[in-house]
């Protein structure tokens, strides 16, 4: 029994429900590498809490991992929080390549349909790794690496790492398997979800497979340094939202408006820009 403030007694009540925002970083990210989640966590209303996930692909391990591996990690984490906080809502928030993880979690096939469901997803700074690579090192260098990775796959060596010499223009000191490189850098690869030149059939496989009534928020950065200058981002956001809505998803009304002044990870932006992002997240939750 517990006593109320007026002295009356009542039966003990269950602890209050706690909702969880699960934040997933991008390539090379480790715990606390991206700073805005700390500000976001302090700005969430009760009963929401934020948890950063460190997947097995975190840091430099992404080169020998895959979206399917990330999804398996996510399923374990979601099952854990479902058990820890029964009755609470869970929303996935992907940052950068973490957006691919969140979308793949909802759109890819689940063996045995045993993947625990979430209540919504937020895609913050969804960008095309393929187009970003072309901008960074040029189309010719990307195609050379693609050709080498394709040859390795045809030889049954897709699990082997591509030659380090092909990564020299990127100055990346890590191993990347042929399969992961092709996933990120080839047209229609498994990671290739947010490129501006994707056909409707590809978007149907991703946004078009979001479950009915799933809540979705898109948070595209208005000054994202990894987005090609030629991309009509507002039109692309409307296209993504259209596929999700036709699948029955509930896309938040602010999703087709970019976050003004926001860079990719909001590392050097004014506090007002971070506040705008937090306000949108809180409004969505």
Could you give a short description of this structure?
The chain has 285 residues and is of the alpha/beta class.
Number of E-type strands: 8
CATH architectural designation of the largest domain: 3-Layer(aba) Sandwich
> Shape, please?
globular
pLDDT average, as an integer?
A: 93
Taking all Cα atoms into account, the compactness measure Rg is 20 Å
The N- and C-terminal alpha carbons lie at a distance of: 33 Å
| Count of spatially separate domains | 2
Strand content: 5-15%
Contiguous runs where pLDDT drops below 50 for at least 5 residues = 1-12
What's the number of helices? Answer: 9
The secondary-structure class comes to alpha/beta
CATH class of the largest domain equals Alpha Beta
Order of helices and strands: EEEHEHEHEHHHHEHEH
- What spatial order of strands do you see in the largest sheet? 4-3-5-6-7-8
CATH superfamily of the largest domain: Alpha/Beta hydrolase fold, catalytic domain
Major sheet description: 6 strands, parallel
Pfam family, one: DUF1749
Protein name: DUF1749-domain-containing protein
Organism: Myriangium duriaei CBS 260.36
What does this structure look like?
The chain has 285 residues and is α/β, with parallel strands linked by helices. The protein has two domains: 16-128 and 195-284, Rossmann fold (3-Layer(aba) Sandwich); 136-191, no CATH class. Helix content is 36%, strand content 12%. It has nine helices and eight strands. The protein has helices spanning 36-43, 67-84, 98-107, 129-137, 139-154, 178-185, 200-205, 233-246, 271-284, and strands spanning 2-3, 9-10, 19-24, 48-53, 90-95, 120-124, 215-219, 250-251. Strands 4-3-5-6-7-8 form a six-stranded parallel β-sheet, with helices on both faces. Strands 1-2 form a two-stranded antiparallel sheet. Strand 5 (90-95), helix 3 (98-107) and strand 6 (120-124) form a beta-alpha-beta unit. Helix 1 crosses helix 9 and helix 4 packs across helix 5. The longest helix is centred in the first third of the chain and has 18 residues, at 67-84. The protein starts with a strand and ends with a helix. Mean pLDDT is 93; it is low at 1-12. InterPro entries: AB_hydrolase_fold (IPR029058), SidJ (IPR013744).
């Amino acid at each position: 029994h517990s006593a109320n403030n007026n002295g009356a007694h009542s039966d003990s009540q269950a602890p209050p429900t706690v909702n969880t925002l699960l934040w997933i970083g991008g390539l090379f990210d480790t715990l606390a590498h991206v700073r805005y989640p700390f500000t976001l966590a302090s700005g969430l209303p009760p009963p929401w809490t934020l948890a950063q996930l460190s997947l097995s692909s975190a840091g430099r391990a992404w080169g020998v991992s895959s979206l399917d591996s990330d999804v398996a990690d996510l399923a374990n984490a979601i099952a854990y929080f479902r058990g820890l906080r029964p009755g609470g809502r869970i929303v996935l928030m992907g940052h950068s390549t973490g957006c691919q993880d969140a979308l793949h979690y909802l759109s890819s096939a689940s063996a045995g349909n045993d993947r625990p469901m979430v209540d919504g997803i937020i895609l913050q700074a969804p960008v095309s790794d393929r187009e970003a690579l072309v901008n960074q090192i040029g189309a010719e260098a990307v195609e050379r690496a693609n050709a080498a990775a394709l040859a390795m796959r045809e030889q049954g060596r897709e699990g082997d790492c591509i030659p380090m010499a092909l990564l020299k223009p990127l100055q990346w000191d890590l191993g990347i398997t042929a399969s992961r490189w092709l996933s990120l850098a080839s047209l229609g690869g498994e990671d290739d979800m947010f490129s501006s030149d994707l056909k409707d059939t590809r978007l149907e496989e991703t946004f078009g497979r979001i479950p009915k009534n799933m809540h979705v928020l898109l948070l595209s950065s208005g000054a994202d340094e990894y987005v090609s200058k030629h991309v009509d981002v507002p039109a692309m956001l409307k296209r993504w939202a259209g596929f999700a809505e036709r699948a029955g998803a509930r896309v938040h009304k602010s999703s087709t408006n970019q976050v003004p002044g926001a860079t990719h990870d909001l590392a050097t932006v004014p506090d007002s820009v971070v506040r705008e992002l937090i306000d949108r997240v809180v409004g969505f939750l």
